Every structure is written in C-alpha cells, then in structure tokens.
Amino acid sequence: MDIRRIDEQLSIGPQLKPADVAELARLGFRALICNRPDGEGADQAGHAEIEEAARALGLATRFLPAESGKVTDAQGTQFGALMAELPKPVFAYCRTGMRSITMWALWQSATLPVPQVLERAAQAGFDLRGLARRIANGGRTPLDVAEASHEVVIIGGGAAGISVAASLLARERDLDVAIIDPADIHYYQPGWTLVGAGVFEPSATARTMASILPRGVKWIKSAVAAFEPESNSVILDGCRVVRYRQLVVCPGLKLDWQAVQGLPETLGRHGVTSNYRYDLAPYTWQLVESLRGGRAVFTQPPMPIKCAGAPQKAMYLAADHWRRAGHLQSVDIQFCNAGAALFGVADYVPALMEYVKAYGIHLQFGQNLVAVDGPARTATFSVGSADGSTSLVKREFDMLHVVPPQKAPDFVRVSPLADAAGWVDLDPVTLRHRKYENVFGLGDAGSTPNAKTAAAARKQAPVVAHNLLAQRGQASGEARYDGYGSCPLTVERGKIVLAEFLYGGKVAPTFPQWLIDGRRPSRLAWYLKERLMPPLYWQGMLKGREWLVQPEMAG
Question: Where is each Beta-lactamase hydrolase-like protein phosphatase-like domain found (predicted)?
Fold first, then answer.
C-alpha cells in the first residue's frame, strides 16, 4: 500500500480497496477521507464499500469528492474542517492522492508560506508547482506556462488510446507522441464476461500500463481536468498544462453507479454483482456457482453503453451453468431491459430467442433499474407505459447482475469538445472533431453512432492514425470509418453468436458464411473469443498490427 506521510496527523495515498482498511487500522489510522467520486475507474471500489469496512473496524469516514483537477478553494476549506473534526491520524485518498494533497495545500496556504507547502508536498512525492501558479494567478491556471509540449497528445490509455498510439508509431516511428492517463493497470475488459463465468482468471485480463505502452510513447501519469482547444492546451490534475499540435481524445466512458439509488452501498454483497467491474466479476461467478434455486435478475440500462451485448452474455452463461448443474428448472431468470428489443441488430435476434426459450428466461422490456435494497434483496424498476406515464415495480432477487447507466467522463461533458449529449463531437466517417480540425477522437467517449466495443476501437484506430498524419502532410488521402462493431454473444459455454455490423445495423461478417455464420451459434466463434482474441488484443491491436482492419480510403 502506498502511504505518503505529510505530517503526524495526515497521510495521503491512492485509491483504497476494502481489504486495505484493515491494514490502515493496524497501522493506527483512526479516520479516512475519500476525495474521489465513485465510478471513475473500472477497478474502483465505491465509497460505500470502504465505509462499510471502516465502520466494522471503528474508523471514522468522510466523503469529500472532487472532479479530477477541479479542486476548489472551498473544498480546501472543507478539508481543513474535516481535519479539525476527525480523530487522528487521518488517511486521505483519491485516484492517485493528487486531489487530497491539493485540498491539503489549499487549506494550509492560508496560514503557511506557499514555498513551505510545496516543499512538504514534494517530500511526499507530489509536484504542486502548477497549483502555486494558480494561487499566484488569483485562482486561474495560467496557460502561458506549459509543463510539457508534444506533437500528438492522446487522452486515455485504454484500448483506443494504446491502439491509436501504436498505429501512429507504426507509420511514423519518430513521431512525438504522449499518452495522458493516471492508471497503473490496463485491463482487457472483454475478458470480464468470461471471468464472471469461471472461464478466465481475473489476472489474465490485467497488465501494467508500463508494460503495454508502445515503445517511444511518453507517458504522462496524470488525470485530465479540462481542455483549452483554442490555445491547444490540456490542463491536468494539479493545475499543470500540456500543449499539443494535435489531440486525440479517447478516455472511455464513466460508469454511473450512483444513478441507481442504493447500488453503491450493496455492490459485491447481498447477491449484487456486475461484470462491468474488475473486482466484481469473480463475485458473479461465485454467485452463479452457489445458486441452487430462486430468482436471478439481470439488468440493462438505457443506451448507450459499452458492449451492448454484455448484459445478456452474463445471463446466458449463468443459465448454461445452471442447466449443466441440474438447477435450471429451479431458477427464475428475469432480464429487465430498459430498451424495447433484445438486441439492436434484428438479424441476430432469432438465434438469441432460441436460447431465451431454452433457458426459460422471462424478458421484461421498458424496465429501468432505479433502486436496489441489498439487505432486503429487492430491486426497483421504473416501467414506462403506452401513454407515457411511468410506474415503479419491485422485484425480489437471490442474485442481481447490474449493468450501470453510462455517460461520457465529466471532464469531457463540460468541455468545448462535447456535443449537446456530452460526447466528443466527431465526424462519424473521418473521426475528426467537427469544430477543431486538429482534434480527433475514437472509442467509447465519441459521439459516433456505432457500438461501443473494443472491436470498434480496433477499426477506428488506423482511421485516426492515417487522417492525423494526412493533416500533417505525412500521408495522402482520407481514411473512412464505416461504423464497424462486433459483439461476440456468448450464448453458452462453447458457443457464440458472432454479431458484426456497420452503421445502420448492416450485417458485415469478417468470415465467409460457410466458416462462421454469425447468425447461428458457433463453436469456432467461441474458440476465437476464448483462445485467439486475447493474444490478438495484446499482441496485435495494442502493437499497431492492423490485421483485417486496414482503413478504407475515400474515392
């Protein structure tokens, strides 16, 4: 555990896991302050989970969340008030500790000279020089002083960001490329469905960020606070400024657990789980394996979400296990979908409906999860009617697999780069920003109407790489993205319905029908998902090897 001592009363560190609380208690800490909003990361335990662990050990907790890079003077004052109130010593944390140290510094700067505050922060490993400039500039971050400047800056080190960096460097090895991302771990998120089914070990889906970054990329390990596209600048956590000639925005999306009342407090307990979080996917398998009878409820929120097939993938694999174990007839499986159809591309629905009938699944459309009472094992859904009115329906459960509502990250939604819905406003064909010509985007945070899947990002990365270089005069012609997305629907252990489609839901199979007919369950498609796609991801997509995804050129 990374514990950075500021003084005898306060230590600061990165995100906690519930298991870390016991170690902090053993070390003598008496209180915790969480400065990170829930839902920022795919492996992030919610504040309610930490609070529950702390309460059991007699530690006090407080929740003072701040958006990355947007700590206010008022929050600094509030932090000081909490420090006066809480028993000592206190451990404060956020994603990396930067927001916590920033609040401490703003509080302390009212009584201590700024150089002394900076020195103490530096001794703990935090660079607050940007904050000093903000204090000296009356609360604003001066944009005329940049910490760094790069030809191409990529926001996000997920599948989209790493892939586009690799594609750029495969074309121009000496290009000055920087990736901004605060995460230490990179996750192969498509594998979490199989973790939740007991097929993959969680560790198989995780690698250190340092180990997978393309050679030659500069890694700025920080979070983005804001965009200033008029001055070609990005403001980072800690009020630091990075300049760019061209910008690629692909930070992924935000899982909005807080949008469902009571959900953060019960995740990982009381039979409530989700394959959308790294640390919860193993709990999904634990619940599936132990359930002998009762009601299992699987939810799907309103679109858009990442991997729209994932909610029902979890359900089919669970049902297949219960069938193989002889418990299927004793389990009432309910699929509560906020939408009006089982899947967005009609060609694949007949095959899926065969499994719905075989497993005895009860489909409930137009039902959106709005609240969960974990101890009472009750889920509440908002149900729309034909006249436009809504009503609430409660369902008891023995197991509840939740897919949270999803939206663009906060720093994107409030930025000049966002469209009216909060997504990065991109041309759907060129993936260039509609207003700022030197800004590109791809992946889940983009406004393009394609499925938000890793397969889509794999197809988008070469398009962005080519068009960015063409703008620099280092490539010719215009690459075009056709909306390709893929969703391997795991309908049972050993078989997959391989959905592949373009903009408008046009079916676009990669393989000839005699080899894999995507409209029918296939063992070969399962083999691709289980055996070939992980190495294709790690050794192909993230290395700039554009097998079967060379960009289509205009004209």
Answer: 2-109
pLDDT in tens, 62-121: 999 998 888 999 999 999 999 999 999 999 999 999 999 999 999 998 888 888 888 899
Asked if residue 187 lies in contact with residue 42, where contact means CB atoms within 8 angstroms, the answer is: yes
pLDDT tens-digit readout, 3-41: 999 999 999 999 999 999 999 999 999 999 999 999 888
Pairing assessment for the beta strands 233-236 and 390-396 based on DSSP bridges = unpaired
DSSP code at position 51:
H
Catalytic machinery residues: 307, 487
Tell me, what amino acid is at 4? R
> Cα–Cα distance between 424 and 443 in angstroms, integer?
10
In which residue are the tokens 């800056």 written?
153
Measured between alpha carbons, how far is 79 from 93 in angstroms, rounded to an integer? 12
**Strand order from edge to edge, sheet including 378-384:** 367-373, 378-384, 390-396
Phi, psi dihedral angles at 486 (to 5 degrees): -140, 140
Q: Which residue, chain included where needed, has tokens 């498509």?
A: 190
pTM of the model: 0.90
Domains and CATH numbers, the chain: 4-136 (3.90.190.10), 148-253+408-553 (3.50.50.60), 257-404 (3.50.50.60)
SS (H, E, C) 198-219: CCCCHHHHEEEHHHHCCCCCEE
Terminal-residue alpha carbon distance, the chain: 56
Q: Where on the phi/psi map is residue 129: left (φ > 0), alpha (ψ -120 to 50), or beta?
A: alpha
| Cα distance between residue 32 and residue 60, in whole Å | 6
Closest CA to 231 of 143, 152, 130: 143
Give 474's Cβ-side CA count (13 Å radius): 14
